[in-house]
Amino acid sequence: MPKFVDKEAKRLEIISAAMKVFAQSGVVNAKMSEIAEVAGVGKGTIYEYFRSKEEIFSHAFELFFQEMRTALREIANSSDSPEARLRKFIKTALVDFTTGNEEFLNIMLDFWAEGIRSKNENVSQILDLDAIYSEFRAVIASILDEGIREGSFRPVDSNIAASTLIGVLDGLYLQWAINPFVFKFEEVGDFLVDNFLRGIKNN
């Protein structure tokens, strides 16, 4: 009787193994043979699921950001006040999605670089940085616009404010990747949300 293989489970196992290799060696220096060894499969098996290490890398981040997108959409569509949603957004981005995802943070530079320079159509369609950032900006801007309409936030340019907030978040991810002992995400999250709100609230 032929052995049943759960292809989706195997695909996720390969992605998980690849992230360990990427975190240790970097995407540029990682080899498919290393990924196969960590995954406990033959090198040929890897190619049954992915055409290149860049494609594995892209799918790994797509899974990560899809989970984040779902959570952030739920926040944006909740019935909480704009201030409460903004607080929850920042907490989710800085705390919930960094806990247990240290391997992703350790290779954020690879992620940005690969997303910017990729000329591989199959990779660029998956790792579309512009689409990812556009969606995050839109979520934040929608919360800000609602707060402005209600009068709880000052009439700021919501797109500029959203872009600024995302830039701060990315900067914190980068600093943590360089030295994870500089700060705790919980602490900087509280500081960031308090001061960001202080700047936009209609006192």
TrEMBL record:
Segments traversing the membrane: none
Domain of life: Bacteria
Domain HTH tetR-type: 8-68
Keywords annotated in UniProt: DNA-binding, Repressor, Transcription, Transcription regulation
Gene3D superfamilies listed in its UniProt record: Homeodomain-like (1.10.10.60), Tetracycline Repressor, domain 2 (1.10.357.10)
GO molecular function: DNA-binding transcription factor activity; transcription cis-regulatory region binding
Protein name: Transcriptional regulator, TetR family
Stretch forming the signal peptide: none
DNA-binding region: 31-50
